[in-house]
Specification:
CATH class of the largest domain: Alpha Beta
Shape: globular
CATH architecture of the largest domain: Alpha-Beta Barrel
Distance between the termini: 52 Å
Number of strands: 13
Helix content: 40-55%
Amino acid sequence: MSYVNQKHIIETIKMIKIHHLDIRTTTLSLSLRDCCSSDVKKTGQKIYDKILKYASNFVSCANEIENEYSIPIVNKRIALTPISLIGESCDNIDYVYLAQIIDKAGQEVGVDFIGGFSALVDKGFTKGDLKFFEQIPEALATTNKLCSSVNLGTSKAGVNMDAVLKTADVIKKTAQLTKDSDSIGAAKFVCFCNAVTDNPFMAGAFCNVNEAECALNIGVSGPGVVSSAIEELDKTADFGEVSNLIKKMAFKITTSGELIGRRLAQKLNIPFGIIDLSLAPTPQEGDSVAEIFKAMGLEQAGAHGTTMALAMLNDAVKKGGIMASSYVGGLSGAFIPVSEDAGMIEAARLNSLTIDKLEAMTSVCSVGLDMIAIPGDTPNSTIAGIIADEMAIGMINKKTTAVRIIPVIGKTVGQDAHFGGLLGTAPIMSVNKFSSEIFVNRGGRVPAPIHSLNN
């Protein structure tokens, strides 16, 4: 009989019950490469049938594993091959129709979100891509579970500024079409530089053409576990001690996620893909990345020193997690979504956290500007400028960056947008009042940086 460490059992129970340790998402990655057809109805039927074939017992199996190990699995999701690629083969192309078929399949199998309504346009557009961009707003406005993403740049190709402009238009139109729900449609859309193909988190999850037929990707979370551990440290503990503690906690969190992921993959009879180490917060009290900054000694998220705190946190999480799994992937690090983190919401309301500060923080965190609500009358050119800045950070630093921004139609600074569930509540944040219009309208492709010639 194997040795059971009672202390570790009690510690794990405490992490789950008190400090909100959970499996944030189990994401079924599913290739649709064999679903192409010249007829959009046939393509839609193939997609629908394949989702049901692979995912019909996905949610029930996840629930069984959740009950078996008493570790909450917050979301069950599906990530598909970018639909712009699949739909492009149709003579009578209709991406909105495909979006509604996918949403119907998602509802049928009972998942929370389904991603992959996506396009990869970092070097330019095909005819199908152009049609796809036109139809994203309607697709998001007429579905419930569908999430959409586009990749606008890479460190190898540069940034497609024509696509940046079109993306700003997509965001604004989607916000307008869903204005009766605080423009929630825009919260289901994200744009990337250097998008990763095994990301289990929404709205950016998709299964690229280089991925396997089917795999299970896991996203774990535990900011409450990390912040509570740091709070128990002596206030004079140096950064080496803080970092070591974070690494130990990340190891424990990742071990739990790896166990759940492998058991679920085995139950579904599909390969285990990757585990994403990202600390993803929720609006719940005590489940906040911003609270980790406070535990480190900052009065408020956004105070001077926040970028350094985030850099150390991100690095320590990766170092600890990598020792617990050989298959680390996705985004891995720390998320800083404003509306999904109670501490970030508080900091934004106190004006400690601004868009400019968040942009600086994205140079050292896992992703980018995430779940940020801005005034509904913000010009499209300003939104394009915000996106362009974030794409530049990703391109130059050879890292993944993203923008998920919501212009809340009919609301302005000082008001809140309410999205509900994991999406939370977002205070409307101010944007720079000066124009970016002439700059962003130059169009074309920003050339890749010199390090892109590394071969």
